[in-house]
Design a protein that fits this description.
alpha/beta; Rossmann fold; 2 domains; seven-stranded mixed β-sheet; 9 strands; globular
């Protein structure tokens, strides 16, 4: 299978998987926002224009959207999973939700802040810089972006890469996909709750190096203001340059 076709399949499988377990999202995961996420979210909110519009990208069931509303921001949420958006609408009817993949964003200087929490791990290396560019374009000059990067499980990546290559998959280093097909098949046919480890294995993951992410951030015209690790993620808060033109 050609890589472009395979990546399209991986994206479609991720959408179907999130649709399938979305009815149980709040029961299984609850409303807990981890400490380090909350800390960086506060850093983000302190920088966003008071009352300014915020885009919640890859919002899922809207876990963070309530906190944005409480801080006084009108929120637009986007996600490619209709099932997850249905859960979000149930809890946060004041948010404007749209079914949209991050790759399809076409906003232009529409938001004072963009938030993307725990979603970019499902983005392939070909689309990662494209999406960061689209975040930059969505921001008004001086606007602020906060996003998380799943921390690289280095001890697993080499093994997973070799396993995936042996399976004939058109992978690049940094992709964790060696168990995706088997785990996905089990997830989609099971009527019983499955371990969270199986859920995680059933969806495409990509782990770029942090240096690569920093380069992509700089290339799209964003300047990092805060960064740090915590809660198994790496956190970036970056600002669009005032003179940036979209």
């Amino acid at each position: 299978m050609e890589r472009a076709e395979w990546l399209k399949k991986m994206r479609s499988m991720a959408e179907a998987l999130y649709d399938r377990f979305s009815p149980h999202y709040w029961v299984r995961y609850g409303f807990t926002v981890h400490e380090r996420h909350r800390e960086f979210l506060q850093k983000f909110l302190e920088r966003v224009t008071p009352g300014g519009a915020v885009l919640s990208a890859g919002c899922g069931a809207g876990l963070y959207d309530g906190l944005l509303l409480e801080a006084g921001h009108p929120v637009t949420g986007i996600d490619q999973s209709a099932g997850m958006l249905a859960r979000a609408r149930e809890r946060f009817p004041k948010v404007r939700y749209e079914k949209m993949g991050m790759q399809e964003m076409a906003f232009r200087a529409a938001f004072d802040g963009v938030l993307c929490m725990d979603a970019l791990e499902h983005i392939c290396p070909e689309d990662y810089p494209l999406i960061l560019r689209k975040f930059q374009e969505a921001l008004k000059p001086g606007g602020v972006l906060y996003f998380t990067v799943d921390i690289d499980p280095s001890e697993d990546l080499e093994f997973a890469y070799q396993q995936a290559k042996a399976q004939g998959l058109p992978v690049v280093y940094g992709e964790l996909v060696d168990r995706v097909d088997a785990a996905y098949a089990q997830m989609m046919t099971s009527d019983q709750p499955v371990p969270s480890e199986l859920e995680d294995a059933a969806v495409y993951h990509f782990y770029p190096s942090l240096d690569q992410v920093r380069q992509w951030i700089a290339q799209v015209g964003l300047a990092i203001e805060e960064e740090g690790a915590g809660d198994e993620y790496y956190h970036f808060v970056a600002r669009k340059k005032e003179e940036s033109v979209v």
